[in-house]
Specification:
7 helices, alpha/beta, binds flavin-adenine dinucleotide, 26% helix, Rossmann fold, single chain
Length: 321
């Protein structure tokens, strides 16, 4: 028997991690999917993220934690397949001030408390935690390829409003990230600007991520397959997409302080990403007013990768409803 979705064409707005993951899940559930997007990999915010499985600046916390845990299971599976770019790696998380273990471990992710001697002179607390690292430079092309192999189509388009989506589509899934502010006039959406610096991999750096988690912005050194990614800054309500040389210098200096192998760094790239901030992730079905329904899936702050699979599963549930 044919189901209603056999004839339903879905338009997904956005080709970041949220749009691509939603698209893959809808295709696997039997829908016909076209992505309409202004930018695609390697030019989205998602391409700037390191990306660690780690909830950060996304709300409400209980919903984000549930999505993160469900997505963790999927990333653990993907880590079995090298071409996904997902690997399980140790994260050494340090704090300048005394600090409890990260709240997101909470009986779900095992961790080791670092001994005084392992903290050196600077740090007051530290933890070793194994997490999925979702190397976005490999993972985003992998997702795009998986989407294409499932029969998904992608079109370059800049939409001024949802009314610009062609009428052939009976369902719209809005995954426009920070672009939702303009697209659906959602004034609750704001940018949380970040910058990341790519440097050549120094010999002997290994695979462990090193992060100082307190202070105005986290400082992290993330060894990836072909390079090392350094970050970051957290600047709310700053829409500038221009990388700033003073910020790169500060990030490199902070990172070299925790990873001495970076003292003689070799700069490869320097990019800006606008994390889609919102008091609450918007993941809901808007009932049709003009004959077609809209599912919103945006506002994931600093947790877009971390929550992506569970949010995409919820999109499929909403589409079925
Ligand atoms: C420095 C930095 C570090 C980060 N670290 C992590 C991390 O370690 N772990 C983690 O989980 N997350 C991290 N994040 C956050 C993560 O990158 C975001 O949550 C995620 O990228 C959001 O994905 P998205 O698909 O919603 O948005 P985007 O990647 O921004 O994609 C939005 C898409 O919508 C399209 N679009 C927007 N408006 C329109 C329009 N009007 N018409 C057509 N298309 C439109 C865009 O072109 C794009 O294709 C980090 C972000 C930054 C900047």
């Amino acid at each position: 028997m044919k189901s209603a979705r056999d004839n339903s064409k879905v338009a997904i707005i956005g080709a970041g991690v949220i749009g691509l993951t939603s698209a893959v899940c809808l295709l696997e559930a039997g829908w016909r999917v076209t992505i309409l997007a202004r930018e695609r990999t390697p030019n989205t915010t998602s391409d700037v993220a390191p990306a660690l499985w780690m909830p950060f600046r996304a709300f409400p916390v209980d919903r984000v934690l549930a999505w993160a845990r469900a997505s963790h299971a999927e990333f653990s599976r993907l880590a079995q397949t090298p071409e996904t770019g997902v690997v399980m790696v140790p994260l050494f998380q340090y704090f300048d001030q005394p600090a409890p273990p990260p709240w997101w471990c909470d009986g779900f992710i095992p961790f080791t408390t670092l001994e005084r001697a392992e903290l050196g002179k600077r740090f007051q607390a530290g933890y070793k935690i194994e997490i999925p690292l979702i190397d976005s430079s490999v993972y985003m092309p992998y997702l795009l390829d998986r989407f294409a192999k499932l029969g998904g189509e992608i079109q370059e388009a800049t939409l001024r409003s949802l009314a610009d989506v062609p009428e052939e589509f009976s369902l719209i899934v809005n995954c426009s990230g920070v672009g939702a502010r303009e697209l659906v006039r959602d004034e609750k959406v704001f940018p949380i600007r970040g910058e990341a610096v790519w440097v050549r991999k120094p010999d002997g750096i290994g695979t462990a991520i090193v992060e100082v988690a307190d202070g105005p912005a986290p400082t992290y050194v993330v060894p990836r397959r072909d390079h090392v990614l350094l970050g970051s800054v957290v600047q709310e309500n700053d829409w500038s997409r221009e990388p700033r040389a003073d910020i790169a210098a500060d990030v490199i200096q902070r990172c070299a302080a925790i990873q001495p192998l970076l003292k003689d760094f070799n700069l490869l790239a320097h990019k800006v990403g606008l994390r889609p901030g919102r008091a609450e992730v918007r993941l809901e079905l808007e009932q049709p007013t003009n004959g077609r329904a809209v599912i919103h899936n945006y506002g994931h702050g600093g947790s877009g990768f971390t929550t992506s699979w569970a949010c995409a599963d919820e999109v499929v549930q909403l589409a079925r409803s």
